[in-house]
Amino acid sequence: MKVMVILGSRNPNGKTAKAAEALLSGLTSEGNHQFEQVFLPQMNVERCRQCENDGWGICWTEGRCIIEDDFPVLVNKIKNADLVIFVNPVYFGDLSESMRAFLDRLRRTCRHEGGRDGIYNKIAIGICVAGGGGGGAAECTVSLERVLYNCGFDVFDIVPARRQNLEMKLAVLKTSGKWLASKLI
Q1: Taking all residues of the chain, what is their mean pLDDT, rounded to a whole number?
Q2: What structural domains does the chain harbor?
Q3: Local structure of 169: helix, strand or coil
């Protein structure tokens, strides 16, 4: 199984990366899975320009974006994966700026049949990790789930985690990865 992990954090050793690692650890313990991780802040993904006067552009008419950056490369990686995991650090009770920029454009392209092709009904999991004071994880999961459903993903699970319960959630994510692998094999 090909797994694509998209992280909205730039820290490969932070809490968000640890959450992704826990889920992947469970997945890989139950079979031979290939995975790739992408840290969105290290990518060149611009925010939506709302190209035309009506706020749309070729995303509406062709299911793709006119901006020439890393966005189409990431979309192709998603389309070629069997499972997509979105892992987000919680900032201000919501998605990180890099995750928001990517998902805003993805949901626009997915409004068109061509943009949804290869994404519709693809299995997705979301994880939102709140550091700092630990607040906002639940609110962030609602935001992430809404966008993923709007894109057409088959959302298997959305997991909130807080700095205060991260140790327990890492164990849950590892177990969830094992369970998921057994369901997808």
Answers
A1: 94
A2: 2-184 (3.40.50.360)
A3: helix
